Amino acid sequence: MPLEYSAQALAWLIPLIIWDLIWKCIALWKAGRNDQVVWFVVLFILSTAGILPIIYIFFFQDKKKKSFKNQKALKAVKKIS
Question: For residue 50, what pLDDT is reported?
């Protein structure tokens, strides 16, 4: 019986770990790019099965920051005007 439970636990645990790693990597990358140090540290330390990274990505990441390409284009337009 214990081996049967172990195999069943692994069948749930491995996909859960992969799910968490994918979301955690995306959230850490976005927090790092947005210079949000507190979020980066919290996301790095806590393991929440992907829940906290998903909440960060959809509700708390800084979406107002312009990309480098947009800033460069904006400067070019301002020079022409």
Answer: 78
